[in-house]
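quick q for whoever's on today - can somebody do inverse folding on this one?? i tried earlier but teh output was garbage lol. tokens:
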């Protein structure tokens, strides 16, 4: 995958996960390029790609920001990220010779544990 698409994907993932919030400025092109040790044009191309998709907006002299409403990619990007993780788990289960039913049972158990822990944590914070 070209570097500019990798950068665009990481920014979409950050937006989908909430790590990057609406209105929050993205790093300026030059410092980001220096930090990543890549050509400035590569970062500019990634930002242009995101702007064309409606994910970010750029204001002359002010910089680039995550766009209000964050386009229809927000939900899709979240689903893509989770799908990738699920795919990795499926491949691992296949290599470990875990059949479909056993895999789904394990997923349900893990989800129940997660939900229980989350509810417990929320009760603690409410107290």
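ok took a stab at it. sequence:
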């Amino acid at each position: 995958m070209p570097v500019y698409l990798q950068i665009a994907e990481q920014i979409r993932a950050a937006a989908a996960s909430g790590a990057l919030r609406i209105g929050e400025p993205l790093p300026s092109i030059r410092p980001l390029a220096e930090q990543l040790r890549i050509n400035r044009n590569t970062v500019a191309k990634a930002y242009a790609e995101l702007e064309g998709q409606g994910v970010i907006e750029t204001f002359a002299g002010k910089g680039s920001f995550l766009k209000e409403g964050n386009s229809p990619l927000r939900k899709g990007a979240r689903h893509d990220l989770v799908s990738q993780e699920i795919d990795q788990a499926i491949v691992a289960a296949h290599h470990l010779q875990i059949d479909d039913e056993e895999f789904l049972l394990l997923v349900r158990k893990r989800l129940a544990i997660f939900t229980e822990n989350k509810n417990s944590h929320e009760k603690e914070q409410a107290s």
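fwiw The radius of gyration is 19 Å. also The helical segments are 3-17, 29-36, 40-52, 73-95, 100-126. so keep that in mind when u check it
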